[in-house]
Design a protein that fits this description.
The protein has helices at about 10-30, 40-60, 65-85, 100-105, 120-130, 140-145, 150-155, 175-195, 215-220, 240-245, 270-285, 295-300, and strands spanning about 105-115, 135-140, 160-165, 200, 225, 230, 255-260, 290. Strands 1, 2, 3, 6, 7 and 8 form a 6-stranded parallel β-sheet that branches. A two-stranded parallel sheet has the order 4-5. It is built from 12 helices and 8 strands. The protein is globular and about 70 Å long. By secondary structure, it is of the alpha/beta class. It has 2 domains: about 40-85; about 100-300, TIM Barrel.
């Protein structure tokens, strides 16, 4: 072995130190995000008040407990339904359209969920480059960790990498506050370590959540994002139908939801998003609209 060539052991040491430096950089990026103060929505404040009144009623007049219990059950049912409506603002702030200043500039945001996918994401990036478009990619922490170079490439091309939870659990809407905090923090750390920037935006898996998500988001300095319109490209293999859903009423200020991970397939096995995206980008051009990332639209 040449004296100037690192031994296998030293190469492992160099790689380990590089990983450690990246992790530390990610932690610094996460720590740089300023947590926000949680401000309960009017519905949540009313819920707190109702629980207090019911407790007081039972203490002062014990026979009232059936009515108090029924009111609390109805309240909990309302909160559960609100969490199952992705664009609902009853539980707290929820960005489904861009600020007025972005609308006046003729901007929209193309957002992609559930990636990265090495079979799809690179082609999505090439299509965006071809049309001079920027986008926001909501990656899960664990998938990002499996494809680190792809995550870095997304950031290198000027798109934003945002938080879509660490594991994308089907039971995300059933989590408690402590579990929400862990799930957000793990994804934040992984994504920040790969890009050098901590995500500022979060989209819940399938858009579903419960009232405990908002205080966890505030503590992590994250802002909840849903969408204006979606094409259901993760379940529909017909590109024309997906495109029609995305472009019906398309206007400045819209946030569009697509998937670079888990995309449905056309009849010939091609990811439907790859057939939809070129036509969608052409439609944006024809309407005089410009696709930007969430930070570009919301943080100027």
């Amino acid at each position: 072995m040449n004296a100037s060539t690192p031994s296998p052991v030293s190469r492992k040491g160099i790689a380990a130190r590089a990983v450690a430096r990246t992790a530390h950089a990610g932690q610094r990026a996460v720590m740089a995000v300023v947590p926000a103060r949680w401000r309960p929505s009017p519905v949540i404040r009313a819920s707190f008040a109702l629980h207090g009144l019911c407790a007081a009623a039972v203490l002062t007049y014990p026979p009232s407990w059936p009515w108090s219990l029924a009111l609390i059950a109805a309240n909990q049912g309302l909160l559960a339904v609100a969490g199952l409506i992705p664009r609902s603002r009853l539980l707290g702030p929820n960005l489904s359209r861009l600020p007025e200043r972005a609308t006046q500039r003729g901007e929209v945001v193309l957002s992609f969920d559930d990636g990265p996918d090495p079979a799809v994401t690179p082609q999505v990036l090439d299509l965006l480059d071809r049309h001079g478009a920027k986008a926001s990619f909501f990656f899960t922490g664990q998938r990002a960790q499996r494809h680190p170079e792809l995550v870095r490439e997304v950031a290198r091309r000027g798109h934003s990498v945002e938080n879509h939870s660490d594991r994308h659990s089907n039971f995300f809407a059933c989590y408690g506050l402590a579990r929400y905090r862990r799930e957000l923090a793990r994804a934040q750390t992984r994504l920040a370590a790969l890009t050098g920037r901590a995500p500022r935006y979060f989209r819940a898996p399938m858009g579903l959540r419960n009232p405990l998500l908002e205080p966890a988001l505030a503590g992590a300095g994250l802002r909840l994002v849903s969408w204006t319109r979606r094409g259901y490209d993760s379940v529909t293999g017909d590109p024309a139908l997906v495109l029609a859903r995305l472009t019906r009423g398309l206007a400045a200020g819209d946030v569009l939801l697509l998937h670079d991970g888990g995309s449905a397939r056309t009849r010939d096995g091609r990811p439907v998003v790859l057939d939809v995206l070129p036509a969608l980008l052409e439609r944006l051009k024809a309407l005089g609209l410009r696709s930007v990332s969430l930070p570009m639209a919301c943080e100027d």
